[in-house]
Amino acid sequence: MIVKIRVITNAKQEKLEEIGENLLKVHLREKPEKGKANKALIDFLSDELDIPRANVTILSGHTSSEKLVEILN
């Protein structure tokens, strides 16, 4: 499944919000420096969805807050 994710960094708490079909908003505590937020996003999604980290891949938007993420079951 491919989903569009809007990432909000420097949030007070980490949470996942569903905005629409295949559109999510993820709040992360991590700062967007040197790929830290991307790694935090992968870790957060794998924990929330209870899947291995290897099943979460950022397809596009590595330097943007809007990302396309592939999630394999």
Task: Explain briefly what this protein structure is.
By secondary structure, the chain is an alpha+beta fold.
Walkthrough of the structure:
The protein is α+β, with helices and mostly antiparallel strands and 73 residues long. It has a single domain (2-71), classed as YggU-like (Conserved Hypothetical Protein Mth637, Chain: A, 2-Layer Sandwich). The protein is 19% helix and 40% strand. The chain is built from 1 helix and 5 strands; from the N terminus they run βββαββ. The protein has one helix spanning 36-49, and strands at residues 2-8, 15-20, 23-27, 56-60, 66-71. A 5-stranded mixed sheet has the order 2-3-1-5-4, with helices on one face.
Write the layout of secondary structure elements.
Elements lengths: L1 E7 L6 E6 L2 E5 L8 H14 L6 E5 L5 E6 L2
Quickly list its features.
73 residues, alpha+beta, Conserved Hypothetical Protein Mth637, Chain: A, 19% helix
CATH superfamily: YggU-like
- Give the helix level as a range of percent: 10-25%
Indicate the CATH class.
Alpha Beta
The structure class reads: alpha+beta
Radius of gyration, whole Å: 11 Å
Give the second-level CATH assignment, the architecture: 2-Layer Sandwich
State the order of secondary-structure elements, H for helix, E for strand. EEEHEE
Number of domains: 1
Q: Indicate the proportion of strand residues.
A: 35-45%
What gap, in angstroms, lies between the N and C termini? 8 Å
User: How many beta strands in the DSSP annotation?
Assistant: 5
Low-confidence stretches: none
Largest sheet: 5 strands, mixed
Strand order, main sheet: write it out: 2-3-1-5-4
